[in-house]
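Lab manual, section 2.4: Encoding a predicted structure.

Procedure: take the sequence of the chain (154 residues), apply the prediction step described in section 2.3, and record the output as structure tokens. A sample record is shown.
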Amino acid sequence: MSKIEILEKINKIKKAKIASAKEEDYLEVIYELMKAKGYAKPRDISKILNVKASSVTKMLKKLASKEMINYEKYGGVTLTNKGIKLAQNIIEKHKKLIDFLMLLGVDEKNANIEAESLEHVISEETLKKLYSLYKFIMENESIKEELINYLNKK
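Recorded output:
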């Protein structure tokens, strides 16, 4: 498969996704704010994502049109069931990626930063295989020790 064919395929996959990476970031932030105080305010989202209020308003309208959030101008924002499921899926991906990266010796701060990017592009199939490998290593102490020793030599 040529590089052009790969790029073409990747873009088709991206377009077929339920939500873009940016939309997923908003859903994640809204989910965490809802856990903390029951709802999200646009100004809180703006501060956390370091974006302009107008950008937040535009995205909230988009997410509302996709039935992922409940949004009324000047009110609190909450996730719909659809939004909650997607946010939980993203958060679960994030946790699994952090576990795997930290097993490889990546420190927690960098693992979080890397996972934040990877969670938006990794396929379910690839994540499932990575996490199966993670569980296999964690369940086999001698293999885990060998891996850690090997990685510490590099």
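Check your result against the sample. The longest strand covers residues 69-70.
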